[in-house]
Amino acid sequence: MDQAKNIGELGLAGILVWMRFMATRQLIWNKNYNVKPREISKAQDRLTDLLQSIYTTHPQHRELLRMIMSTVGRGGEGDVGQRIRDEILVIQVNLEEHRNNDCKGGMMEEWHQKLHNNTSPDDVIICQALIDYIKSDFDISVYWKTLNENGITKERLLSYDRAIHSEPSFKRDQKDGLLRDLGHYMRTLKAVHSGADLESAISNCMGYRAEGQGFMVGVQINPIPGLPSGFPDLLRFVLEHIEDRNVEALLEGLLEARQELRPLLLKSTGRLKDLLFLDIALESTVRTAIERGYEELNNSRPEKIMHFITLVLENLALSSDDNEDLVYCLKGWHHSISMCKSKSAHWALYAKSVLDRTRLALASKAETYQRILQPSAEYLGSLLGVDQWAINIFTEEIIRAGSAATLSSLINRLDPVLRETAHLGSGTY
């Protein structure tokens, strides 16, 4: 990491490529190794500490560093990782009257062996698949649906050093206890593997306590001091509305939270990485909320679509190093909305000019990503034996996963409306 830092942009791009290949399962870093969860957690903790330090000392590379952090779990001191080992045992042997989780064999034992030897981000998905399976009244197709939608196939389960051969099979009277325990376990898994998971990121910033039980160690995460007044309430609002079908209020809350965080991200603090993970999670949630809200825009007036564009554009600008052109575009969209509301005769023509400028800004950003990332993806990918198709689409997939792709989709929706209103004729994009 020090070498990458000293090389600069190219070095950090190489780190991002490597980490992204691991995150997308093109590289299996822990094959044939017995790596204890607390060792993985500690290694992630050291890595994220290094990234935090570089973020502070090399502000010109913050966008790349954010992208690297989005591929890695937060990690933590030994107790956090150790709980991955301890809690699965508690779930298996916990035969208290109100839980009755007698599930010490079969799939749970196979998963237990995997967790003890090579825990990975896949375990978050496996845990979610079990929760979904139990909630569906033990419909095994739901278990496989969750796994497959997240890239885990039967073949992948069998490929682990400690393979998972069996399907889950529980008794109906185990349902409530397992849901409760697996829900708690999910927090532990996400604390190590899912730094940018929103609920986990909020918990790390606001603080939480997990009690020890028997041989299981306890964990206490203290709240970050100096957070803005009202910020906890804002985060609670976000969590309470995270599943809302009408997403406008949620989007505004997410962007307000990011605005509140921004001054803190420019300072050097010991808990900066927790704030960064929170900001990355908020950014990602804006994207998923917008995508969920597309239906809401189907019959919306132009000013509503433009408002959504301003939200996504601000989301992108808050995550970009060189964002001057994006900020100019944002001001242009706000002016377009004002003109539209005041029924200015030429509002659509003005908005179309802003739309075209936004398109150019997005194209420039995509070209920058291609220039910085794709050569490293091709070079490292060939050396590491990565599938050629994964190399070819590397940068394209990063762009698709970001706010720029969401913004492009929104302006493509608006473009024909503006053309018709401004009598510009049809266009092809």
Task: Give your account of this protein's structure.
This protein has 429 residues and is an all-alpha fold. Among the domains are: 78-221, no CATH class; 297-429, no CATH class. It has helices at residues 2-7, 9-23, 37-57, 62-69, 78-93, 106-118, 122-135, 140-149, 154-159, 175-193, 198-206, 231-240, 248-265, 272-292, 302-318, 324-341, 347-384, 388-392, 394-400, 403-421, and strands at residues 208-210, 219-221. It has a two-stranded antiparallel sheet with strand order 1-2. Strand 1 and strand 2 (219-221) form a beta hairpin.
List keywords for this structure.
single chain, two-stranded antiparallel sheet, 429 residues, 1% strand, mainly alpha
Itemize the secondary structure elements and their pairings.
Elements: H1 2-7, H2 9-23, H3 37-57, H4 62-69, H5 78-93, H6 106-118, H7 122-135, H8 140-149, H9 154-159, H10 175-193, H11 198-206, E1 208-210, E2 219-221, H12 231-240, H13 248-265, H14 272-292, H15 302-318, H16 324-341, H17 347-384, H18 388-392, H19 394-400, H20 403-421
Antiparallel strand pairs: 1-2
Helix pairs in contact: 2-4, 2-17, 3-4, 3-5, 5-6, 5-10, 7-8, 7-10, 11-14, 12-13, 13-14, 13-15, 14-15, 15-16, 15-20, 16-17, 17-19, 17-20
Number of helices: 20
Q: Sheet with the most strands?
A: 2 strands, antiparallel
Share of residues in strands? under 5%
Taking the alpha carbons of the first and last residues, their distance comes to 41 Å
Low-confidence stretches: 95-101
The structural class is mainly alpha
Radius of gyration: 23 Å
The succession of helices and strands, N to C, reads HHHHHHHHHHHEEHHHHHHHHH
| Shape call | globular
Strand tally: 2
- The overall average pLDDT, rounded, is 84
Q: What's the assembly state of these chains?
A: single chain
Q: What is the helix fraction of residues, given as a range? A: 55-70%
Spatial strand arrangement across the major sheet? 1-2
